[in-house]
Amino acid sequence: MTGNTHIQPDSSLKPFASPDHLDPQLQSFLEEASTRLCEWLANAGKSGPLPSLSVMPEVAPSLNGLSKQSLLDDLQLVMEGAYQPSHPGALAHLDPPPLTASIVADLICAGLNNNLLAEELSPSLSRLERQLCQWFAERIGFSMQSGGVAASGGSLSNLMALVVARYHSGLNNDKEAVVLVSEDAHVCFAKAIRVMGLQNDALQKVATNQDGQISIELLQSQLNKLRSQSKKCFAIVATAGTTVRGAIDPLLQLADIAKKEGIWLHIDGAIGGIFAISQKTSPMLNGISKADSITLNPQKLLGITKTSSLLLVANKSNLTSTFSTGLPYIEPSSGEEAHGGEIGLQGTRAGEVLKLWLGLRQLGEVGIDQLLENSISRRIFFEEQLDPSKFNIISGPLHLISFTPKELNIKQSKSWSIETRQKLLDNKFMLSRPNHDARYYLKAVMGNPHTKKVHLIQLATLLNRSVGL
Ligand SMILES: Cc1ncc(COP(=O)(O)O)c(C=O)c1O
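Above are the sequence and the pyridoxal-5'-phosphate SMILES. Below is the predicted complex in structure-token form.
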């Protein structure tokens, strides 16, 4: 018997890959998962942006771990209930289809499982993040002193910017210190103020002009008022790309005022800042290089998989002076550079820079230019299809557009927005329904490269028919 004993190779999936040999089970697990993902992407056009029905898998771990097949089947259920950003009608938000190189880099990043907290836990990724932040900073016109840090989303980048601004201004202990933003600034600033232990009224909103840009006159008079009240302002926030219409605040004028007043200028470029990296579109952001800090969200238009946000600062020593505490349990980093965990709020964080870097390498300069320019062209084309006698259209120079029927009162516009959004969903178009200036709008974000003119014509036809019939 003994001579005949044939030891079967263990064909079960191991929870951890062997450190000694290639694991065929892991390889086939990855291959099968990749195939399912490719199929999910390939079927994007068939369904709509939103799933019709969604069955959830069991949530709790079973007593014994699941087989590869069962894990894949569980995953499939979640995939079938997922939002589908690759559908050409997915136009509701700032969530475009994922770049293929970014998908691959995300997978590799998970496999590497490095930690940007410290250089010894992410040697190559720490250097890559520094160098890529430097590249972005130089691209937008910052000097060699500049730098940056990646963060999990624009809200966090903006919060960090305000924390740095307050620290830099020496107003950390001033509970009355304020931040000036436009009334159309993103809601994350209200959150940031709370996290920073300030009262809600520390966020002072300045009205916008008819183009949705912060009013310079009102900002100046607000600053004068603060002076007369002996109150201090530790940051002026400019928005480069507002959430509903994509307006860009007058950056040059704001930079001049901030300089004259000695106040930190932060630009929330979560939507529009990315247009500054292309020579073709950067003139729209004239003045961006004069900011003290800038938030960029490559996840929003370039298709870098979530999350991908950067906080760039004109002087990188401001990041370390604000966030460095020392990491007594970690080896010092090489050279003069601080650890990733010493230049921002987050400690442990993934090497998100990998998918940003590989995505940019995949696109190349030409691909980046095209992605940015085409999104604006789609917005212009779509705007031309909408009947201007029926809609109040608000837009800016970017790829966002919102509109509401002219003839309806506030209540009627709400019903119109609900009914029309549903009708569009029935036709596989997903738009969002922002409440702006106390009135409901429908909003389209033209960041989806799969959306073609034929789709935009169909969408505009449905919309034009939704009013006045
Ligand atoms: C202008 C602006 N700033 C900040 C944010 C917040 O970014 P995130 O959702 O990545 O936290 C958004 C999100 O849409 C935004 O539109």
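Residues 94, 153-155, 158, 186, 188, 239, 241, 243, 268, 270-271, 297, 309 surround pyridoxal-5'-phosphate (CB under 6 Å).
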